[in-house]
Amino acid sequence: MTLDATDRQIIEALQAGLPLVPAPYAAVAEQLNLPEDALTERLAAMKASGVIRRIAAAPNHYKLGMTANGMTVWDVADDQITELGALIGALPFVTHCYERPRALPEWPYNLFAMVHGSSREEVEEKRARIKDILGDALRASDVLVSTRILKKTGLRLRKRG
Amino acid sequence: MSELDQIDRDLINILQNDLGLEHRPFEAIADQVGLSETDVLTRINALKENGYLTRFGPFFDAAAMGGAFCLCAMAVPAEKFDDVLTKVNAHAEVAHNYERAHRLNMWFVLATEKPEGIPNTADAIERETGLTVHCFPKLQEFYIGFRVAA
Question: What CA–CA distance (Å, rounded) separates A81 from A86?
Answer without folding.
Answer: 8
